[in-house]
Amino acid sequence: MNNRLFTVVVGCILFFASGLAVCPVQAGGKNLGEWTGRHSRVVWVQDHGDGSDTFGRSDNLMLYGYDSVDGRGERPLVAGKSNYFKPLFTPDGNNVIVSDRLQRKIYLVEWASGKKKELGSGVAVAVWQDPQPGWFFGRKTTWIYCFDGNQKENKYGTSQPLYRFPLNRPHHRELVWDKSDIAWSSLQLSRDGEVIGGLFPWPHGGVLQGDEKSFKRLGRGCWSSLSPDNSKLLWIFDGLHRNVQIHDVRSGDSWMVNISSAPGVRDLEVYHPRWSNHPRYFVLTGPYEKGEGGNRVGGGGENVEVYVGRFDEKVQSVEDWLQLTHNGRADFYPEMWIEGGERENLVRAAETQVLQVEKNHWPVAPEAAVFAWENMKAENQLTADSPLGFYQCNLELRGNALFARDYSLLADGGWGETVDGGKKIGESLAVSGNASVSLVIYPEKKQRASIFSLVGSDGFLLELRQESDQLVLVGRFASQGEQIVVWPAVLDRPGPISVSLTLDGLTAELFIDGKSAGEKVFAAGFGAFSRVDRLVAGDMQGRFSGKISSLAVHNRRLSGGEIEAGHAMVAKKQQPLQEPASLVVEAQLLETTDIPDPDSIGAYRRALVVNSYEVQKVIAGEYKQQKILVAEWAVLDRKIVKQYPEESETERLFLQKFDLHPELEGERQMMDVFEPDLDMYYRLPATELRR
């Protein structure tokens, strides 16, 4: 028996006997170090409660580690249970930064001894080493990034500011970011420190860039991770919890990689995906199969283990897997360190061509904008010199509203509204006594429905609505009473139609496609706008059939020239999308995914379920398989919208390839059906079929 084998066997016996650790079963006969070819370490949090503390919020956790060269297998780094949240390696791999989220304290743990040293208050979320040596001793500074403060938080994210401090001077803190909420578990920096990746907040994945920390939105989802080299790749975890959408920050490219193909995972849900310090290696936990309905991840379970994956050279796929842990307890929040990983670079980084993007100046007059939502994929942010300062503008979908393939708001059966910005918008308009509203609409029929409104607790204050081919402006101000003005015959085509409205307290002027459609007397009581608590796009009764995009509100009256320029900007971008090929089949439901209870899907408000159908007849399009895999809406705005029949019956399904609907990126998806050889289709909702 050679020395290495003897050491491993003896180590396993000792740790099995102690009950404190196990020796992992090695994939392909290799341990972690043999598999990576380097000295490697992994640290994680192990649940010693019921195995469901996926987000690390209890005090039934232990800090565990594995070292590829010490022969000790999986072992506790610190004796005893406590709260251990999001362990992070220091760059040399010799220490672990970990937080007690219950006590709001940050600690440094020595890998070899397990000694703990308190570093101060807060919750640590990232570690980064400045590549430039310091001017005094010539040493590289290691920075700890943390949240700290008393601002609101939940298990997904926090409003607390992001700070950083040098590891050797923990009381010397610098403010990094305080302009938006951030998710707890997704913050990472590029090697040069020029890019910070994360969720700002969930589900908006993107990056902060440069010294000025400008935010760039890249996609929707959860558990983002940034490549540790300078290739500037950010992945965003998808709603199936099986794939990552990788975005090249520099070139604008993006592609999907499946990360649930490890032999022990069996294409079930995974979680906690995170790049190691080596750009080709990453870690995750799984499989998640114990939870009910939409809460597979929240169920945790004793079968949740740590897996290590290796990307191919260009990060297009996972070329190999290793199951690290085999311990019968739930393992969460893994972090991996590989010796010399900080010197490795992806092949792709040298080949990437930086995309030269024309500066997007929409909306016009940004210094007066109090709301700017272009579409679900755009940056949608106000600049620091706006009346509200830096602010991210989002629309929360309500009712049966969805996003369309062009990322606009598809308002049929629902509407979009601001979550927390309505009051700020109203107060700014009340002070200024002037306002402008601009938006692009795609009305799909002659209808009586609201298009835009400012709403207070006592109802509409300002409403712009469609009545057949007319636009009607209604104001409900206590001092002036109800004001109504009408512009006839301005909606005489399907759209897109650029609509702008200016108000000064005495008159209202409407612009269609940048041209004035007439000025009307309209006594707006701007003081009433201080009661606004919501901005609404669409009709709160779900009566507007059509799409809305490029919605902006300013706290002054825009000039005719500014409105014409704004119309030119949005018109330039309105390239019609080619409609994807549709497939129409008659089919019977075969295998189903449980429809989740809306309360089980966490922060998500919508969810798709993936089912299989037996194809009876192809009505339109081409399809040769006997079975078909279909994703269909089950929950919209936290209400169940689908029921399965008691007995299988033939249904007519209108379908398109799922991957041709990028607006679904980041939506929660549940799949209990295992059909790896079938392409997934998206069942078009009734609102899409009417278009």
From TrEMBL:
<protein>
    <recommendedName>
        <fullName>WD40-like Beta Propeller Repeat</fullName>
    </recommendedName>
</protein>
<keyword id="KW-0732">Signal</keyword>
<dbReference type="InterPro" id="IPR013320">
    <property type="entry name" value="ConA-like_dom_sf"/>
</dbReference>
<feature type="signal peptide">
    <location>
        <begin position="1"/>
        <end position="27"/>
    </location>
</feature>
